[in-house]
Amino acid sequence: MSLIPDVPRLFIDSSFIEGDVVVLDKDQSHYLIKVLRLKPLDQVLIFNGRDGEWLSQLEPGETRKMAVLRPLRQTRPQAPANDLHYLFAPIKHARLDYMVQKATEMGVSHLRPVHTQYSQSARVNLERMRANAVEAAEQCGLLSVPTIIEDVSLPQALAALEPDRLLIFCDEAAEMFNPVKALEQHKPSSKLAILIGPEGGFSHQERTMIKERSLTLRLSLGPRILRADTAAIAALAVVQAVLGDWR
Amino acid sequence: MSLIPDVPRLFIDSSFIEGDVVVLDKDQSHYLIKVLRLKPLDQVLIFNGRDGEWLSQLEPGETRKMAVLRPLRQTRPQAPANDLHYLFAPIKHARLDYMVQKATEMGVSHLRPVHTQYSQSARVNLERMRANAVEAAEQCGLLSVPTIIEDVSLPQALAALEPDRLLIFCDEAAEMFNPVKALEQHKPSSKLAILIGPEGGFSHQERTMIKERSLTLRLSLGPRILRADTAAIAALAVVQAVLGDWR
Fold it and tell me: In this structure, how many other beta carbons lie within 10 angstroms of the beta carbon of residue A163?
């Protein structure tokens, strides 16, 4: 899969109907007209998470500040979405931005911050998370943007998981064992959730609570200490390679 | 493996002999005395890539600005080093820093920038790379710091690889196939090199040159476009999980 060079790519939260124009909001209009300085008939790739990717062209709007896009042809059909939740203890600003972008690149479908006893950050800006996810999806050629789910406490997050969703618990304290072999015990393409704790790890009480959940796999991410954002990409890579859409 | 909380950790480029003090250079002395404000008898974990990790204590130096550490006891023996080279097309400053830190966390033994036709950056600051590798090794509890090898052109980098080193070529244009199965065809713990290209990919000519090398495996990193720094961690995670020290 490759992008069309020099054609900007935009996530748009409305339906595309062939022959029918899409009117952009103020921010996206500003971005195309003022930042990228596009002119009428310039091309833009658009996706909305439902209708695949379309090549569209810019048309004059009712005012000079308003951008209107006309979908010309579908360039890629909508692919079946992953069902991969990524649960993580919130970290501080710049690194949280980064983590959200990277998890999006790696193909998660849902992102949920989970407050733990040793979380670094008590407040989470969900709108900022969403903006980072949209940006990564636009840049990396994704066809949808992961859903950001409201932050909750660890017990609430565990309670909210469906019983048939495999929880992959990346546990620093897990005995070292082969992560590929451990994952291969489970059915590919099943409903998955990955849980990554704060850099201080989980408390003993939290760890017990997680291990008591029935469909839960403790996974070791090797012999070194990984920072939370590294652990996110590493865990997602191994899970996607063994059970997900890299196969 | 866990670190001792609140005890700073320092890479020191000299030998440790029990009972014999280690005299620090100006920068490291400044860091311990002025930045961390350590006092005599405060503890520091030290490693040099050869003698394992030692708990040491700060002792007064000849001048107030000079730090001297006395090794007290070995806290971890030196582990056998990986033999995993990471070859990559240089990217721009901040993201290069990040990539070097992450590759270090993931356990590479050698880092080598490789200039390609579509590289983003022509100049590489090897000293800065080294500083980033040291910092990541200190923070993540490593026992050694990866070697930074001088940047060269792609043909030179390929020629410098020993014939029995498996080159894992992360190729955006590779047909999608199961990366775990592909890696499992090879012997674990063998001499490895991972090559990640620039975000524009390799040229046709470069790709042909790489594929012509005999012990070379083309690896697909899934259906999405990954940024170079994400691809680095993702590839290293899968390789470490299947052939490296995560097993």
Answer: 7
Show Cβ contacts of residue A123 under 8 Å, excluding neighbours closer than 6 positions: A90
Q: Is there a contact between A112 and A133 (Cβ–Cβ < 8 Å)?
A: no
CA gap A97, A107 in Å, rounded: 16
Residue A49 gets the label, from left (phi > 0), alpha (psi -120 to 50) or beta, of left
ipTM: 0.89
In this prediction, residue A4 carries a pLDDT of 72
With a CB cutoff of 8 Å and minimum separation 6, the contacts of A6 are none
Q: The pTM is what? A: 0.91
Side by side, the strands of the sheet bearing B43-47 are B9-11, B43-47, B53-60, B67-76, B22-23
- Selected residues 42-101 of chain B with any CB under 8 Å from a CB in chain A: 79
Supply B196's token pair: 């990640």
> Cβ A140–B227 below 8 Å, yes or no?
yes
Length of chain A: 247
Number of Cβ within a 10 Å radius of residue B57? 16
Contact A36, A69 (CB under 8 A): no
SS3 A71: strand
Q: Where are the beta strands (DSSP E) in chain B?
A: 9-11, 22-23, 43-47, 53-60, 67-76, 84-88, 110-115, 147-148, 152-153, 166-170, 192-196, 216-219
> Residue A102 and residue A241: Cα distance in Å, rounded?
16
Q: Which of B176, B226, B237 sits opposite A105 (nearest CB)?
A: B226
Q: Chain-wide mean pLDDT for chain B?
A: 91
Angle at A227 between CA B69 and CA B229, to 5 degrees: 115
Token pair listed for A142: 């994704």
A223-to-B10, B153, B214 alpha-carbon distances in Å: 19, 33, 31
Dig out the tokens for A209 from the structure: 């609570």
Per residue in A132-152, pLDDT (tens digit) is 999 999 999 999 999 999 999
What does the alpha-carbon distance between residue B170 and residue A55 come to, in Å, rounded to a whole number? 29
- A13 min Cα distance to partner chain B (Å): 21
Quick one: which H or E segment has residue A168? strand A166-170
**Residues A24, A27, A32: CA angle, nearest 5 degrees:** 70
User: A227 in contact with B at a CB cutoff of 8 Å?
Assistant: yes
Binning chain A into helix, strand and coil, the percentages to the nearest 5 are: 30, 25, 45
Q: Is residue A61 classed exposed, middle or buried when 0-12, 13-18 and 19+ CB atoms within 10 A define those classes? A: middle
